[in-house]
From TrEMBL:
Keywords linked to the UniProt accession: Coiled coil
Keyword Coiled coil listed: yes
Organism of provenance: Lamprobacter modestohalophilus
Biased composition (Polar residues): 16-25
GO CC, one annotated term: efflux pump complex
Protein name according to UniProt: Efflux transporter periplasmic adaptor subunit
One Pfam family named in its UniProt record: BSH_CzcB
GO molecular function per UniProt: efflux transmembrane transporter activity
Matching PANTHER family: HLYD FAMILY OF SECRETION PROTEINS (PTHR30469:SF15), MULTIDRUG RESISTANCE PROTEIN MDTA (PTHR30469)
SUPFAM superfamilies given in the database record: HlyD-like secretion proteins (SSF111369)
Multidrug resistance protein MdtA-like C-terminal permuted SH3 domain mapped to chain residues: 271-327
Family designation: Belongs to the membrane fusion protein (MFP) (TC 8.A.1) family.
Domain of life: Bacteria
Gene3D superfamilies in the cross-refs: 2.40.30.170, 2.40.420.20, 2.40.50.100, Helix hairpin bin
Length: 345
């Protein structure tokens, strides 16, 4: 908006000022001086700020898949772990013994099958006996694989590089199947989550830049981008969850910290006027305009969003209208006015 020269609201008819050694002629007593703007539609992006929280997007809860006593658990909350690192061991003596027995059984079944296949050439074994022997070998080998898998379950490893966020058991504890033992989080998966109104969502897109402010880090502001917009709205607030990814995660950022996310919606055409031009009475908001006859008229309006020192006019005002911004003292409907300066937004 172009700068608007100051306008005095002093009583009219005051003594004229000197200019280049000559005096200006006195203006008519009925003349009312004002400053105006010409209202026009322009593409305006509205900034929005929403509160939210930091959250670890990748968090794995490690459970026991076998029952037994914990023989080894050496990591604690906050410890870094490497992918494939062994975190927990359960006692496995009984399973190892069962596995040894199953392997011996499978070996014997294979020997029996080989012997019957040798006898079959001399008529010493029927086809049914050989089929039964082959089935017994398959069952015995399957039992070996089951026990090998169960034995592997007694050793729990880190699925990825991360941090231990929860330790829920101790060495010596006896745990049953599906007991939650540890939680591992990926620090690189830290994101911000905010709820956004259904009115703002259509103006946002995945990849739009945002600013993330973390109060716990002294109000640090870091850049980010919209990672994901959830497809459903809450029934109470009619809001959807929006996930924000950091361009670079700052040191000290933690899961659960309070954040404020500031983003700008895409620019849409809006009819804006300076906020100082807006008047208010018991009938509602209005502005003063200059009609074709050069007279002031009171124009009721419906307002929308306020952006810094401007306000959106949703209804009641047409583009191209001259809106009075200064000179309201003594102004009345039908009064002749003269604009000493007109600008465009």
């Amino acid at each position: 908006m172009l700068p608007i020269a100051g306008c005095s609201d002093a009583p009219f008819g005051s003594k004229p000022s000197a200019n280049d050694g000559q005096s200006k002629p006195s203006r008519p007593a009925s003349e009312h001086l004002v400053t105006t703007i010409t209202a026009e539609r322009a593409s305006v992006a509205v900034p929005h700020e929403r509160p939210g929280s930091l959250r670890l997007r990748r968090l794995v809860r490690l459970h026991s898949q076998e029952e037994g006593r914990i023989t080894e658990l050496q990591v604690f909350e906050g410890d870094e772990v490497a992918p494939g690192q062994t975190l927990i061991r359960l006692e496995d003596d009984l399973l190892r013994a069962e596995l040894d027995a199953a392997r011996a059984t499978a070996a014997q079944e294979r020997l029996d099958l080989k012997r019957l296949e040798g006898l079959a050439g001399r008529g010493g074994a029927s086809e049914d006996e050989i089929a039964q022997a082959r089935t017994a070998v398959a069952v015995a080998e399957a039992q070996v694989r089951v026990l090998e898998t169960r034995l592997a379950f007694t050793e729990i490893s880190a699925p990825f590089a991360g941090l231990v966020t929860a330790r829920l058991a101790e060495p010596g504890d006896f745990v049953t199947k599906n007991t939650h033992l540890l939680s591992i989080a990926d620090p690189a998966s830290l994101i911000a989550e905010v709820l956004v109104s259904e009115l703002v969502l259509p103006q946002l897109s995945v990849g739009d830049p945002v600013q993330i402010r973390i109060d716990a880090l002294g109000g640090l502001i870091v850049p980010g981008r919209i990672l994901r917009i959830h497809p459903t709205l809450s029934e109470t607030g009619r809001q959807a969850m929006v996930e924000i990814a950091f361009d670079q995660i700052p040191a000290g950022a933690r899961d659960g910290q309070f954040v404020r996310v500031r983003f700008e919606s895409r620019g849409i055409p809006r009819l804006m006027v300076p906020f100082r031009a807006l008047r208010q009475d018991r009938d509602g908001p209005f502005v003063w305009i200059i009609d074709e006859a050069g007279e002031a008229q009171r124009q009721p309006v419906e307002i929308g969003v306020r952006i810094t020192d401007q306000v959106e006019i949703v209804d009641g005002l047409e583009p191209g209208t001259q809106v009075i911004t200064r000179g309201f003292l003594g102004l009345a409907a039908g009064k002749e006015v003269r604009a000493i300066e007109t600008s465009r937004l």
